[in-house]
Design goal:
Distance between the termini: 17 Å
Strand content: 35-45%
Shape: globular
Structural class: mainly beta
Helix content: under 10%
Length: 144
């Protein structure tokens, strides 16, 4: 399973994106399908000298494996991005504003400027999609 996050609005205090999904069926991938909007902290250009600010900076662009593990903070099973340079504990979870994330990806609908709504319901739907993939099929996210 592949997730693709395209960052479309890079603002001084938050970043809005669009998350799309494609699944593997009978050995081939389905076309990309829009799934939801995303909210992250402030984006910086790591490739041109941008620096991380703990808890306030979106993660670097790249392709990362995802595993579902128990979150010590949220006390529930959540997707965890693996191998993010200079970051740890980056998850996909619910929340509404950039104050609800310390580098993680929030899912929902961007119906208000700088926010996502319907986040818990969107996270539930995403977990259903991930849980219903073929057994053993890996999950990756590409962030651009």
């Amino acid at each position: 399973m592949e997730l693709h996050l395209k960052r479309i609005a890079k603002r001084p205090t938050y970043t809005i994106g669009r998350l799309s999904i494609r699944r593997r069926e009978r050995g081939t991938f389905t076309p990309w399908t829009y799934f939801c909007d995303t909210l992250e902290p402030h984006w910086v250009d790591f490739h041109h000298g941008g620096r991380k600010t703990k808890g306030k900076t979106a993660i670097p662009e790249g392709r990362y494996p995802i595993v579902v593990t128990m979150s010590p903070r949220f006390k529930r099973w959540l997707p965890l991005l693996v191998g993010v340079p200079h970051y740890s504990g980056i998850r996909i979870h619910s929340g509404n504003t950039s104050a609800d994330t310390e580098g993680c990806i929030l899912v929902g609908r961007n119906t208000e400027v700088g926010k996502v709504t319907d986040s818990r319901r969107t996270l539930y739907r995403l977990m259903q999609v991930i849980d219903h993939r073929d057994e053993g099929e890996p999950v990756f996210i590409e962030i651009e």
